[in-house]
Amino acid sequence: MSYGLYINFPFCKSKCSYCDYITVPDYNGYSDIYLNALIKEMQLYSGNKLKSVYLGGGTPSLMPASQLEKLINALHTNFKISKKIEFTIEVNPDDVDNQLLKYYKNFGVNRISLGIQSFDDEILKFLKRRYNGKTAEKAINLAASFFENYNVDILFAVPQVQSLKKLENDVMLALKYKPKHFAIYDLVIEEKTYLGWLLKKLQIRAVEDDDYVEYYELVYNLLTASDYYHYEISSYALSGFECKHNKLYWRNYEYIGIGAAAHSYINKKRFWNYKFPRQYINAVLDKNNAEESFEILDDDRRLGETIMLNLHLAEGVNIKEINKKYQIDFLKKFRKQIEKLINQELIEVNNNNMKLTFKGRLFANIAASEFL
Ligand code: SF4
Q1: Ligand 1 center to residue 26 CA distance, Å?
Q2: What is the pTM of this model?
Q3: pLDDT tens per residue across all 372 residues of the chain
Q4: Is residue 311 in a domain?
Q5: Ligand 1: which atom is nearest the Cα of residue 92?
Q6: Residue 69 maps to which CATH number?
Q7: What's the CA gap between 94 and 117, in Å, rounded?
Q8: Does the C-beta of 19 come closer than 6 Å to ligand 1?
Q9: Which of 11, 15, 116, 118 to mutate to test the pocket of ligand 1 (most atoms within 8 A of CB)?
Q10: d(C-alpha 90, C-alpha 350), whole Å
């Protein structure tokens, strides 16, 4: 079988104000034992072919070169990997230097994802990122000199400190380097974060819905005018540079996730690993199994999820494919829901295809929930 592989590296030097992932500092080389657990878990999937590899976190760019080399050797020992597959590493701008990028190239990484978020010092400080705008720009400049294919993450809807003008400046500055891919996310204030705490104390106010729409439209206008294709709700790419790994999730294809908190989806079963790195390490090293829990997805559930995920993509839902795979008449089965969403101008249906309208992209969850 052939899968996308996600590897989680849940270590960060500090905590960003909006982050609700489980991450820990690398106390005294803790990540060494973690690496051994990753390699052991990998062996459970030995022999499979990979379509893509994505090393995310956390901050995988904190991983020392010796660890990365060991991890990549283990990948080649355990999986069938063609040199051509997309291999992405997430990189914190603060960690970028010539040597790091040279290592990545030598190890066969062919795509990096730069977590820039903003070039504005006030915004970066508010987000508790550990670099300033100059460092972020230096990172993108260096990334562009090493990699043809790299992604830039930018955040919008940052309360208090962001304005349309500041967002425009961020996008325009990144555009100078013509990254092949942009991931532009709205900042969601989660309860168990520093920003969540500030919100609860009424020390900040969430961005209003109308402002949110303006941010979203601004990004869309700037990037589509520069030849980027808005191929997924939060993602833009130049032709041929859509993220293959992420598309695999949006198409609801199968994937393997290794590491703490990683999810896998194989043969109608979704399962997930222990969340905390210590629990994960103990589970793998003691029981040779990191799985905390699982669910088996029946046909209805898989159908609903496939529609929900496919709707994220500009190409939308391929009706013929769905009919064949689930032995249904899609348009008949969902006639009421489809009519309702067309009336609300959230979706459009043409021949063999159902997709979100521009307005629908802003309310994707509402549209998708009709099919679940
Ligand atoms: S770098 Fe990413 S994972 Fe780490 S604390 Fe910040 S947002 Fe969270």
Answers
A1: 13
A2: 0.96
A3: 899 999 999 999 999 999 999 999 998 889 999 999 999 999 999 999 999 999 999 999 999 999 999 999 999 999 999 989 999 999 999 999 999 999 999 999 999 999 999 999 999 999 999 999 999 999 999 999 999 999 999 999 999 999 999 999 999 999 999 999 999 999 999 999 999 999 999 999 999 999 999 999 999 999 999 999 999 999 999 999 999 999 999 999 999 999 999 999 999 999 999 999 999 999 999 999 999 999 999 999 999 999 999 999 999 999 999 999 999 999 999 999 999 999 999 999 998 999 999 999 999 999 999 999
A4: no
A5: 1
A6: 3.20.20.70
A7: 12
A8: yes
A9: 15
A10: 37
Per this entry, what is the length of the chain? 372
Rounded Cα distance between 267 and 296, Å, is 9
Q: Whose CA is nearest to atom 7 of ligand 1?
A: 19
Looking at ligand 1, which residue's alpha carbon is closest to its atom 3? 58
Pocket of ligand 1 contains residue 16 by CB under 6 Å: yes
Domain count, the chain: 2
Distance CA 368, CA 102 (A): 42
Q: Please give the structure tokens belonging to residue 100.
A: 């790091």
Domain containing residue 337? 317-369
The atom number, within ligand 1, closest to the CA of 129 reads 6
Nearest to 25 by CA among 8, 37, 13, 10: 13
> Which of 235, 250, 265 is the last residue in one of the domains?
250
Ligand 1: residue whose CA is nearest its atom 8: 19
Determine if ligand 1 sits within 6 Å of the CB of residue 58. Answer: yes
Q: Please identify, among 229, 250, 271, the residue that sits at the C-terminal boundary of a domain.
A: 250
Residues 6+ apart with CB under 8 A from 333: none
